[in-house]
Amino acid sequence: MSKNGLTPVRTALPNGVVVLVQSTKTQPAVAINFAMVSGSVCDSADHIGIANFVAHVIDRGTSSRSAEALAEAFDNRGLSFAVRASRHRMILACNCLTDDFEMVLELVADIAQHPSFPDREVGKRRVEIETAIRRDADSSAEAADDLVRALIYGELHPYGRRVSGTLDSLGRIDRTALIDFHRIRCVPKGATLTIAGDVNPSAVTDTVSRLFGDWSADPPVPVSLPPVPEANGRRRAVRQLPGKVQADIAYGFTGVARSDPRYHGFRIMNNVLGQFGLGGRLGNTIRERQGMAYYVFSGLEANIGPGPLIVRAGVSPANVDRAIASIDDEVGKMGADGVTDQELTDAKQFLVGSIPRMLETNAMIATFLQNSEQFDLGMDYDARLPGLFEAVTLDDVCDAAESLLAPDRASIAIAGPIDEDVEGAVSP
């Protein structure tokens, strides 16, 4: 990296794969991050969770390598290979030594292009996913998060449903469906291969062209996100989980898309609300001064579509109503009055100061560049980011708060040992 920031080399292969290479010399290691446009938004109505299922099986054998051979190739070199499906991407990621880079990239290319989805591995991974779904259903934090997303977006919107699907939808997904999803959705068009580490960019581009250049497939059919339902009033749902010692609250709104020009103002607003210091205004009031919460913070998930802003809190079951009232109070105050000059200055300094920490490792650099490409932020986004934060005005942040933070439009989900008879209460 130069003193002025990242200097990635960007190349687009004829088949649509975009290659980003950032050379670093801090250690003889390389991070590989390969993302395909095949996340859970691509799930069909009958096969909710199929992208996640494919991500769990794609590395369990290829047309030329068995699951055991792949595992041995990674294990012998002490490598951890991870695959996950997010809302919009399926990501294959690995860190390796520079000496192993070409061999590992060959494995990644084979896994991405030629998975065999063996029946035995499909069965094993199905059981693992079923177990995870049951475990999350019994987690008050996960249950509250699921409920609030369904309240905000509706259960049919891709942002309102679980990436992993349900036990019912999982039962309808067979090996043929996995193969078809991979063939139709896991394609070179729109894919991004990001490599950061001790490598020569021109040599890497030649290797990538050899391993990925002959990959061909029909371009994927674009997925259009449905509009987000308008929040016309306050909504509430409760999932009763007897036997738990803690209740979890998820309190949310529809936020903004990552492409929204107001994004950096919203990010500063969220930092003041629930992230700065020990949790922003929320943490200072509810956790520190009132001592009501085990944790409390807010998160802004801007995405291709308008992602949510969610306040999360873990409290004693006896403090649920008091905690929600306190969240209402802080959210309402910021929505009505905005933030102060000092809060704006503190948040800017914090966010600008955190930029180097986002780029401390090769894996973090690869992820940063992957996101920059996904959201069309530009390859110099890290260098421009401080100026983008500094350009945000007090009015920008106050307008963001006013447009979003209204307790009478909040979606509120509670999960835990809640003994109440309320409309919207659901059992596990």
Descriptive overview:
The protein has 428 residues and is of the alpha+beta class. It has two domains: 9-212, Cytochrome Bc1 Complex, Chain A, domain 1, CATH 3.30.830; 235-426, Metalloenzyme, LuxS/M16 peptidase-like (Cytochrome Bc1 Complex, Chain A, domain 1, 2-Layer Sandwich). It is 42% helix and 18% strand. Helix 3 (101-113) packs parallel to helix 8, helix 9 runs parallel beside helix 10 and helix 9 (263-274) packs across helix 12 (341-354).
Mean pLDDT across residues: 94
CATH C-level of the largest domain: Alpha Beta
Strand order of the largest sheet: 1-2-6-3-5-4
Question: Mind telling me which CATH architecture of the largest domain this is?
Answer: 2-Layer Sandwich
Proportion of residues in helical segments? 40-55%
Estimate nothing, just give the exact number of structural domains. Answer: 2
**Global outline:** globular
Instruction: Let me know the number of strands.
Output: 12
Identify the notable features of this structure and list them briefly.
42% helix, Cytochrome Bc1 Complex, Chain A, domain 1, 18% strand, 6-stranded mixed β-sheet, globular, disordered C terminus, alpha+beta, 428 residues
Question: What is shown here, in short?
Answer:
The chain is of the alpha+beta class and 428 residues long.
Secondary-structure map:
Elements: E1 9-12, E2 18-23, E3 29-36, H1 50-57, H2 67-75, E4 81-85, E5 90-97, H3 101-113, H4 119-137, H5 140-153, H6 167-171, H7 175-185, E6 192-197, H8 201-212, E7 235-240, E8 247-254, H9 263-274, H10 280-289, E9 293-300, E10 308-315, H11 320-337, H12 341-354, H13 362-374, H14 381-390, H15 394-404, E11 411-416, E12 425-426
Helix pairs in contact: 1-7, 3-8, 9-10, 9-12, 9-15, 10-11, 11-15
